[in-house]
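Predict structure. Chain length: 275.
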Amino acid sequence: MSGQIDTLPPLREVVERHELMAKKALGQNFLFDLNLTSRIARQAGNLEGYDVIEIGPGPGGLTRAILANGASRVIAVERDPRCLPVLAEISEHYPNKLDVIEGDALKVDYKKMLQRPAKIIANLPYNVATPLLIGWVLNEEWPPYFESLTLMFQKEVAERICAKPRSKSYGRLSIICQWRCETNIAFEVGPQAFYPPPKVTSAIVTLIPREKPLECDVNKLERVTQAAFGQRRKMLRSSLKPLGGAALLKKAGIEETKRAEELNVEEFVALAREI
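Prediction complete.
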């Protein structure tokens, strides 16, 4: 069932009328199930009084759910001009509540557009999902301009974001995200929810910015995680040799025989501080 959240036509009908075939080159997989898009919108909590940033709205299934769930305004960034007429129909249905920006989500200055507190909710295009996430998490100002991130990723990426030490998914992305945010996989979404169905399962991840992350230089943390996980099977005294090796580990109070996947976020921050 696609559900009924407003009086606009069902998504499948909208897509057929506008001949909107998802483009692989744009990382598109459209969500048709409005019950599911409503669940994603609800996962972000109360939306009343918030501006919501959405990336890659496509035919607008999630956009409609965010607006139906009470968002004051949605700022939707879409680079596929074929989707603009569909989004214009949604805008007409929700007057003065939808601003559509045609452009590259990686190049938009979101903070400039906000009029009130913000949340980011998106079924991210697969090909830009990780760069967008890293850009948000490494935002220069902290606490950042958004109160939460509710994002759809391939399950494998979601697991990397939320992974704990000593697991195979644990790596640079885990450290960077968990250093600045509390991360959680809210629920999984099967391929059948999309059109066309991808070959992988997806998952919704929530990231809540920490008010006071451990003090650390972002660039140094990136350098130490890159060196450590670049050779994750080696002991840290070897993989971190370019940054000081055994001497660096001693200063940070970490055993030199440990491997990258054994250290927690606090220990990586300690290493970054000693570089």
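Summary: The chain has two domains: 11-209, 218-274.
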